[in-house]
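so ive been stuck on this for like two days lol. basically i have the seq below and the ligand is zinc ion, smiles is in there too. i just want the complex predicted, nothing fancy, no docking runs or whatever. if the output looks off dont worry ill sanity check it later, just need somthing to start from for the group meeting slides
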Amino acid sequence: MVYCPVCGTENPKDVKECKNCHANLDNILNNIKSEESEYNLLKISGYVFIILGLFSLGTLSIVGLILGYKTYQQNNSNAKTHGIIIVVLNIVVILFWIWTLFLVPQWWQSTSLNQSIPRFYR
Ligand SMILES: [Zn+2]
């Protein structure tokens, strides 16, 4: 059974148009399918870019953020959840690289500076 998206009438699964309002169900169902596959593509790429971000010093996470945001905007019941997860994980990757590239060298420098600081402060 297929519900007509225009008038809500129940139709047999393989009809081409709604028996009540004659809306073209074939087109409507194809649109739903292509929206679904666009959503899946965005969602999967969003997750892939989390991993790519890890291997690219976080630069590709920017793309992942955009994909996550676009996933969030999709018309799908799980879109918001997946969108938020993708955005948050991409931000985590970016923060991880900022931490690794900026804070660890600073910490490393400060520990090597420790050698010249009087014993009292160590
Ligand atoms: Zn209808």
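Strands lie at 2-3, 10-11. The two ends are 75 Å apart (CA to CA).
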